[in-house]
Every structure is written in C-alpha cells, then in structure tokens.
Design a protein that fits this description.
Elements: H1 22-34, E1 39-47, H2 48-55, H3 60-69, E2 72-75, E3 82-90, H4 91-113, E4 124-131, H5 132-139, H6 144-153, E5 156-159, E6 169-176, H7 178-194, E7 213-216, E8 219-224, E9 227-230, H8 232-244, E10 267-274, H9 275-282, H10 287-296, E11 299-302, E12 311-318, H11 320-338
Antiparallel strand pairs: 1-3, 1-4, 2-3, 4-6, 5-6, 7-8, 8-9, 10-12, 11-12
C-alpha cells in the first residue's frame, strides 16, 4: 500500500516532521498490514493558539505537513475562538498528518514547560468532530468499544454527551502520548469506516467572536484593541430599536397595552447563561444590565438562581430589533469577560 518510504521534502539541515520519528516508521508497517487504503475526512476542533501552532510562521508548518503527509489540510476561516481543521486523504496520509500534529503539540508542551515549575508533563489532547450517528458505534454496547480502544492504545477517549451547537456532531476528545493518539485515531477510523453516518449530518461551524460594543452620540462602535471602530449596521439596529420600542428607552418595565400603541408587536426570547458569568452581565449594582436595557430598549428579566442548577434564565421582551440588539450586547459582555476584556 505504501510504495514510498516516509521521507521529508526538507533539506539536510531541517528535521523532517515525520521521517525522523522511529515510532512513525513503525506505524508504516502497521498501517500497511491494516490494508486500509480508502479516502477519509476527519475534522478537528482547535483553539486559536493551537491553530497558530499548526500554521506556523508564514504558513510554513502546515505547508510542510501537507507535503510530507500527502493529506489535504484545510483550516476554517473567520475570527473565531475555535476553528475547524479538516484532514482529507487516504488513511495512511491521515495517520501521518495526525502524527505530525500530535508531535507538534507535544513540542509546544515541552517548550511551555521549560518556563514553568510544573513537574508532570500534561498529555497531548486533540478534539475530533464526529457525526452523532456514529458515536454509538464508537462507544459500543455498554461502552465496550470505547473501553477496548482505551485499553489497547493507552489513550484517554471521551465522547461528549451533547451535540455541538446548531449541528448533529459531537466532540470526541483524545489525550495521551503522540503514539497512543495515532493508534487511537487509527482505531476510530476503522469504526467510522465500518459504521457510516446515518441520515444527513449538519456540520458544526464555530461562531465568530463578538466584540464589545459601545454607543455614543447615537452611533455604535465596536472595540478593537485600543480603538473604537464605527459600526454602521449596529448603529442602524440601535436607531431602529429606539424608534420601535414599545417600552420607555430607560429600561423601565412598563409594557405597551395592545391597541394603545402602533409599535410592532412585542415578542419574547429566552437565553440561559452560566451562573459564573451572570455577574458580568448584571454589573456592579445592576449598572451593566441597565445599560443594555437602555441601549436596546428591551425589557430584560434575569430569573433567580435555582438550587442545583448551574445556569440562569434571561427573558428578553421587545420588538425583533430590540431583542437582536439586546442579544448582541449580552454576547459582547460575555465575550469581553471570557477574553479578559471584562473592564470594557
């Protein structure tokens, strides 16, 4: 199946990401014995920092990975905290690409540990995105298959219980040594080939990161670094919300009575927010939530915390424009908190 030895396309001074690893050369014979020469597509979910590591300076690392593995490696576009890395090719090419990614992440871990006091080395972790219809086969009856994969490869494998937002896919997290990860991916590929997805798969698409937003003088601005950038679309939405609001724009909760107001009918939208993030939306003594009420013209109610629940319900009432703007502002607050820009 593999007519050529695994050799890099780099010069003698530059170490090949693949051929210099004894474990990878061992994989050559194991993969050949498996006789799995079919084309597969595997999707990985990565954080921005991980994607940066895979791309490398001026895209050199990913270029080298493509050349040496023979796999097509595509990285989703967009200003998202998470990106999808799609690896397509014959199974042998996929295993080589995975090996290179796993060894690159191990290298990153080793480099980061040289500046820290930690003594135990954390495992390499990769997240696959798998159609939910194939996860049952991966877990097996009573968890038998996943247990077998864990025991035979030495890798930890976790299949998420919930589907990723707006998709029919689940995250499968693999962690361990690079060698264990390669063996584990090989076994997962076998399961996926034996049990193709059932029905249509709605792929997971990470959402772009929303940016903090401010309103001044009737104009909307998004915060990018140290600068406020005018945002005409949001300005229009803000003006539309102010024109159409059936409530007083100062966030008072006096709904308009039917027949007494010609504004568009009010509708209601509900959100659930983790308890540990609710504070950044409310703000000190309610300042932030009052700002959001004022800017959007929507009525916003936050339910009291319920025992045993890690989430709080937020109910937004108003015109579609009010609700859209309130949602945007809430998301902007959450993003600024998560990305460490909570002071904005």
């Amino acid at each position: 199946m593999l007519s050529m030895p695994f050799s890099g396309t780099t010069g003698p001074s530059e170490e090949s990401l693949w051929s210099s690893r004894p474990a990878c050369r061992e994989m050559e014979s194991k993969v050949s014995e498996g006789g799995l020469n079919v084309t597969l597509t595997i999707r990985l979910l990565m954080h921005g920092k991980e994607v940066g590591s895979i791309i490398g300076k001026k895209g050199e690392t990913v270029k080298k990975m493509r050349e040496e593995s023979g796999a097509r490696i595509n990285i989703s576009e967009g200003n998202c905290p998470e990106r999808i890395v799609t690896i397509t090719g014959p199974t042998d090419a996929i295993f080589k690409a995975f090996a290179m990614i796993a060894y690159k992440f191990e290298e990153d871990i080793t480099n980061s540990m040289s500046n820290s006091t930690a003594t135990s080395k954390p495992p390499v972790t990769l997240r696959l995105v798998v159609p939910a219809s194939q996860c049952g086969s991966l877990i097996g009856k009573g968890g038998s298959k996943i247990k077998e994969i864990r025991e035979s490869t030495g890798a930890q494998v976790q299949v998420a219980g919930d589907m990723l937002p707006n998709s029919t896919e689940r995250a499968v997290t693999i962690s361990g040594t690079p060698d264990a990860i390669i063996q584990c991916v090989k076994q997962i590929c076998v399961v996926m080939l034996e049990s193709p997805p059932k029905g249509a798969t709605i792929p997971y698409r990470p959402k772009p990161a929303s940016t903090p937003v401010i309103f001044a003088g009737g104009q909307a601005y998004t915060i990018q670094g140290q600068y406020a950038i005018p945002h005409p679309d949001l300005t229009k939405l803000h003006q539309l919300a102010m024109q159409q609001t059936p409530f007083t724009p100062l966030g008072q909760t006096t709904p308009a009575f039917p027949g007494l107001d010609a504004s568009p009918p009010a509708s209601t939208h509900e959100l659930t927010i983790p308890n540990d993030l609710i504070g950044c939306i409310i703000g000190r003594q309610g300042t932030k939530i009052n700002e959001i009420r004022q800017m959007s013209g929507a009525q916003i109610k936050i339910a009291n915390a319920t025992e045993g629940s890690s989430e709080r319900q937020i109910t937004i009432t108003g015109t579609p424009a009010n609700i859209s703007l309130a949602q945007y502002l809430i998301n902007a607050r959450l993003t600024s908190e998560v990305t460490g820009m909570g002071a904005l």
